[in-house]
Amino acid sequence: MGRVGAIHQHCRPREGCTLPGSRWILLTVSSEFPILPAYVHGYSAREAARLADQANTLAELLHSDTRFPAAARVLEVGCGIGAQTVIVAPASPGAHFTSIDISESSLAEAQRRAAAAGLRNVEFRQADLLDLSFSDGSFDHVLVCFVLEHLPDPRRALRALRRVLAPGGTMTIIEGDHGSALFHPDSLAARANIDCLVRAQGVHGGDANIGRRLQPLLADAGYHDVRTSPRFVYADETRPSWVQGFTRLTFNAMVAGVREQVLTAGWMSPEAWDHGMADLERTSGPGGVFCYTFFKATATRPSV
Fold first, then answer.
1. Most distant CA pair in the chain: distance in Å?
2. 139-176: pLDDT as tens digits
3. What is the pTM of this model?
4. Centroid of chain to Cα 263
5. Whole-angstrom distance, CA of residue 97 vs CA of residue 71
6. Rounded distance, CA 237 to CA 25, Å?
7. Nearest of 187, 192, 273, 290 to residue 238 by alpha carbon
8. What are the sequence ranges of the domains in the chain?
9. Helix or strand or coil: residue 256?
10. What is the rounded CA–CA span in Å between residue 274 and residue 196?
11. Residue 183: count of CB within 10 angstroms of its CB
């Protein structure tokens, strides 16, 4: 495809694209972004390590109440490298997990991690969640963690998953919301970097702020008994494990991971990007504070 056109605009102050004592930063936004991968974070070893750090740090916060009964058939959607699998499967040893992902390389790593953890209640399959081969009502429970944010049509995905969920079965979804990030010292430059991450997902129809939408999405997709629970992260120097595990290794590392995409797209200059990352890193230093909210929703498929 040829270049359809380009939009040249100055960022507004509320978008966090100005720096103290500087002129406006000019962004060039094209209507086509062939350099951005469908999965905005990519499939590098660095990203695999970040996913593992994230899962380990957030295990208790997100999964303390993720339990499935013995003999339950559980479908884990978008298992990736198995970072969540090796947390939820051991917590429900009597349940049988079918963990699917579209990436063959990610599944290979997931299988390696599961084997290293000694898991015997997980089966991995390559599958597209929008084109599942499972029969209607094949599963008692469906678990979707950090997947909907990357999909152009999450309602369609939820409807497709409802088909393979048995009547009365439960759906559990966990998503983040980058718009919930609050930090000190505050910085327009740091917020500009976060905005670029959100924009990169949006290029492919994803929504990095989808956490706040889980309740209406599930209701619109025909689920009942929808309950949404916010899960709040707070990190400061009195909570060093959260500073290291979440602020540095999870959130800041995720933002830093899109640097080349942002620069190649021409959204920011290298100097502006590095300025923003330096400010973001200050939130993990002495006197720094970082807050973030995840959302966990549960719902049921109607019996009739």
1. 63
2. 999 999 999 999 999 999 999 999 999 999 999 999 99
3. 0.85
4. 22
5. 10
6. 33
7. 290
8. 6-300
9. helix
10. 13
11. 22
